[in-house]
Structures are given as C-alpha cells and as structure tokens.
UniProtKB/TrEMBL annotation:
Alphabetically ordered keywords of this record: Oxidoreductase
GO molecular function, one term: arsenate reductase (glutaredoxin) activity
Domain of life, per lineage: Bacteria
Pfam families: ArsC
Family: Belongs to the ArsC family.
Full protein name: Arsenate reductase
Keyword Nucleotide-binding: no
Gene3D superfamilies: Glutaredoxin (3.40.30.10)
C-alpha cells in the first residue's frame, strides 16, 4: 500500500494517523517532491476508475492561471489534463491510497481510508 501525501495537508495527516492506528503497512510518497510521471498518473487513474479532471484541485492558484475550469472534460482532452497534473503536482487531489488489491481511493475521509484498508487481494 502506498499513500501519496502533502505533509502540510490535514486530510493527509489524518489518513496517516488512521493507517498507523490500524497497524497498516504502507509507503509514504510525498508527491510534491517525488512528482509522479504521466504514466504513473495514468496508472493511478485506472486504479481509481476516475478521469484526471475528477482528481484535480481546481481551486489551486495554478489551476486558475491555467484556466482549468474552461478545459474540456472529455476523452480527447484526457492527456492534456494528465500532462498538467504531472507538471503541477499541487493540482493532484490528496491523499491517494493505492490499495493491496490493485485499486486506489482518494482518502479524504476516515471511511475512505478504512475502505482502502479493507481491499485485499
């Protein structure tokens, strides 16, 4: 299990606390420092079952600079979104947990963290 975090994020800290309380084994990835590649983002999106615009933090200043709210949200625009997430990792919603069964969750709530913990192969 791996969790993508921003240590400054209270949701990330809460997810880590819950994982620790449950005795989970996991790897931390500080994705602002260890920026995921476009290929890694595609893989996580597949595991999440989501599109890139569904994990984009559109209220970030860089999102406003890029005009993301105006970008098309359709298959033809998918790679443009993925490239933006790779170039500007602050846009990636957090925390993201890749579960043991090959899926992933955006773990912004304790319930989502517990859901990830319950996903075993």
């Amino acid at each position: 299990m791996e969790i993508w975090i921003n240590p400054a994020c209270s949701k990330c800290r809460g997810a880590l606390e819950l994982l620790d309380a449950e005795g989970a084994r996991y790897t931390v990835r500080r994705y602002l420092e260890d920026v995921p590649s476009e290929e890694e983002i595609r893989g996580v999106l597949e595991r999440l079952g989501l599109e890139p615009w569904e994990i984009t933090r559109t209220q970030e200043p860089v999102a406003k600079e890029l005009g993301l709210k105006e970008w098309a949200r359709e298959p033809a625009a998918r790679e443009r979104w993925i490239a933006a997430l790779a170039r500007h990792p602050k846009l990636i919603q957090r925390p993201i947990i890749t579960a043991e069964d090959g899926t992933a969750v955006v773990a912004r709530t304790p319930e989502a963290v517990r859901d990830a913990l319950g996903r075993v192969p």
